[in-house]
Every structure is written in C-alpha cells, then in structure tokens.
C-alpha cells in the first residue's frame, strides 16, 4: 500500500450556500490523498500503472468549475471522480478549504474532510 498526495491546490470558484457567494466567488483550497498499491509501479517505473498527478489535478479542477452549495457535496463529487478514473484506488481523502468564510468575524478558512474507502 502506498499514498499519493496533492496538497495546497488553490482555486477561485463560485461555491457557497448563499446566492451571493455563488455570484462573487471565493478562494478555495483542496488537499487530496489517495491510497493504492504502489509496489508494481515502484518496480516498473511506468506512469500508466499508477495514478497520474496531472489527471488528479484535472479532475479536481473540473469539479471546482461546477458550483456546489456545500463543501461536503463538492468533496463527495471529487471522491467519485477519482474512483471513476482510477478503479484500483483503495481509499480517497479530500480536504476542502473555503478561505475567509462569511461568518461576520475573522476566520482563516472553513474546512471539511471526507474519506471513503473501498
């Protein structure tokens, strides 16, 4: 078993429960961790036998372009996309950060973490 992580991905997107949030947009962050067998790839050195980081990033980018009301929903969509693209992945964990959430005070970010194993 091995782990591949993309940390600190940042996007400007139009998610949010309130209509105003979906109009003005905000900065969001994503950390994505997947668990899979990396032994064969470690021996073969072949990209097609592992999870391609560029594909992972593209999957996240695609979902960030489609507005969601809740961070939980967004995270779930990302997990589904990863499993569809890489059926051999055994676990996906995603952290979704919303920078400066509209709470009426100072808060660096709101964060939701989802984890699904097969």
UniProtKB/TrEMBL annotation:
The keyword Lyase applies. GO terms for molecular function: dihydroneopterin aldolase activity. One of its GO terms (biological process) is folic acid biosynthetic process. Pathway: Cofactor biosynthesis; tetrahydrofolate biosynthesis; 2-amino-4-hydroxy-6-hydroxymethyl-7,8-dihydropteridine diphosphate from 7,8-dihydroneopterin triphosphate: step 3/4. InterPro entries: Dihydroneopterin_aldolase, FolB_dom, GTP-CH-I_C/QueF. It comes from the Bacteria. Its EC number is 4.1.2.25. It catalyses: 7,8-dihydroneopterin = 6-hydroxymethyl-7,8-dihydropterin + glycolaldehyde. Residues 4-116 form the Dihydroneopterin aldolase/epimerase domain. It is an enzyme of class 4 (lyase). Signal peptide: none annotated. One of its GO terms (cellular component) is cytoplasm. SUPFAM superfamilies: Tetrahydrobiopterin biosynthesis enzymes-like (SSF55620). Keywords: Folate biosynthesis, Lyase. Pfam families: FolB. Belongs to the DHNA family. Catalyzes the conversion of 7,8-dihydroneopterin to 6-hydroxymethyl-7,8-dihydropterin. This is 7,8-dihydroneopterin aldolase.
